[in-house]
């Protein structure tokens, strides 16, 4: 199973995201502090 985590570069919050959430975060920024997000702020892990 593959999971994707977003870690905000400003507030350091880490959340698990799905594809729709990932796209929204890239478009609108961190859901906690609204800091801009980029692809490098997402990490993919396989379980």
Automatic annotation (TrEMBL):
Top-level taxonomic group: Archaea
Any one Pfam family match given in the protein's UniProt record, by short name: DUF7560
InterPro entries, per the entry: DUF7560
Protein name, per record: Zinc ribbon domain-containing protein
Provenance organism: Halorubrum ezzemoulense
């Amino acid at each position: 199973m593959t999971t994707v985590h977003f870690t905000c570069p400003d507030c350091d919050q880490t959340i698990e995201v799905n594809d729709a959430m990932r796209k929204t975060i890239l478009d609108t920024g961190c859901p906690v502090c609204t800091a801009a997000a980029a692809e490098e702020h997402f990490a993919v892990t396989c379980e």
